[in-house]
Specification:
The complex is a heterodimer of chains A (112) and B (116). By secondary structure, chain A is mainly beta. Helix content of chain A is 0%, strand content 53%. Chain A is built from no helices and eleven strands. Chain B contains no helices and eleven strands. Classes of the chains: A mainly beta (112), B mainly beta (116).
Chain lengths: 112, 116
Amino acid sequence: GQQLNQSPQSMFIQEGEDVSMNCTSSSIFNTWLWYKQDPGEGPVLLIALYKAGELTSNGRLTAQFGTTRKDSFLNISASIPSDVGIYFCAGRNAGNNRKLIWGLGTSLAVNP
Amino acid sequence: GAVVSQHPSRVICKSGTSVKIECRSLDFQATTMFWYRQFPKQSLMLMATSNEGSKATYEQGVEKDKFLINHASLTLSTLTVTSAHPEDSSFYICSAREGRGNSPLHFGNGTRLTVT
């Protein structure tokens, strides 16, 4: 099925560094969602975005809904070891029966 | 916040047997629930959309007779893997949407199915 282009695929950083990841789509979305998944668990919602240009924060996390409505980024500031996991973007467009379309994930490793 | 409970978290079964996985929305009503399958190091793959009081909608390539879905109430959907085979071994995750429209999905903790 259709997938989003999520990058980078993986990151290995030092504790305290900032992290940025993004997703792009060939079609326009009206919702962008960012999830984090720990091993053996279900994804947990981090941030939901509903308007083009919207910038939303959740603690050290910040995400933006791109103005073209075809992209979104997630930033993590001052990373800590518990930020380790796989981050997924997901988007929804009204023309696709409201199904979520998923990125392939960004695997984040943090070196303490 | 919205909580989705999935049970069991792990199950091991023999080939040919059937396994039922439950998904419950604990503090909200969900007219629609979604069942996903995830292979190691891969993204989530939507299997079917479960609609309360009506038939589930299956994605292309997903056998409806093998993966039986029942959404009997506004807080419970079940997925039954019938006549399981080793290739059905996977991580199955359910999710539910609180409200309608563009509200985000909340996920259960997944079920690790191993078929021997």
